[in-house]
Amino acid sequence: MSEELRRQLIDTALEMNRSGINQGTSGNLSVRMGEGMLITPSGIPYPALVPRDIVYVDHSGKSDGSRKPSSEWRIHSDIYKAREDARAILHAHPAECVALACMQKAIPAFHYMVAVAGGRDIRCAPYATFGTQELSDHVLEALRGRKACLMANHGLVCLETGLDKALSLAIEVEQLAKSYLRCLAVGDPVLLDSEEMDRVLLKFKSYGVQDS
């Protein structure tokens, strides 16, 4: 099982870069395993990764293996401890999300698909230095009731029930960020009200569920 998860992490990391969601080694991926997680290592290009490079980190922060875990391992670990629904976590620096994050702007309900992240908006967590507990705390708060958030002057974090779903969510949020930025170039978009977003969120509970 561990070997299979390690290979899935590598395959998803490669696809993350191929999709344009991430560049170089700046992002990171993890998957829950036992009383901890498997996470991509720090500073190794994804095409060079082999399964033994993937690092196991337990909930106390102790890591096993010859590689150092990603510098953002704390965010991943804290999310897993706080969110039972998190089975996989993706952190990346997609260009449009980064542009909004550098403006410290959340993504409001300008489009109903904002609900794909679990709420009426996609928040932007306040800035803190990468790799710190302060940043992790900000991200946890921004993710309250959500599956994705921006990180001020930094990037994007998504959590999902699996690696494929985490990547799909990241791609969706990046497209929303792109559309929102285009709106801002013209003016302030018309926002959907809270009642409509609540209706959309209710419909999203059965979105993609096929009848048996």
Secondary structure layout plus pairing:
Elements: H1 2-18, E1 28-33, E2 36-39, E3 55-58, E4 63-64, H2 73-82, E5 88-92, H3 95-102, E6 124-125, H4 133-142, E7 148-151, E8 155-160, H5 163-186, H6 194-204
Parallel strand pairs: 6-7
Antiparallel strand pairs: 1-2, 1-5, 2-3, 3-4, 5-8, 7-8
Helix pairs in contact: 2-4, 3-5
Please summarize the sheet with the most strands.
Answer: 8 strands, mixed
Please identify the oligomeric state. Answer: single chain
- Low-confidence sequence ranges: none
- The rounded Rg comes to 17 Å
Please report the total strand number as a whole number: 8
Mean pLDDT: 94
The proportion of residues forming helix, as a percent range, comes to 25-40%
- What's the name of the CATH homologous superfamily? Class II aldolase/adducin N-terminal domain
Shape by Cα distribution = globular
Q: Going across the major beta sheet, what is the strand order? A: 4-3-2-1-5-8-7-6
Under the CATH scheme, the architecture is 3-Layer(aba) Sandwich
Q: H/E series, N to C?
A: HEEEEHEHEHEEHH
CA distance, first residue to last residue = 29 Å
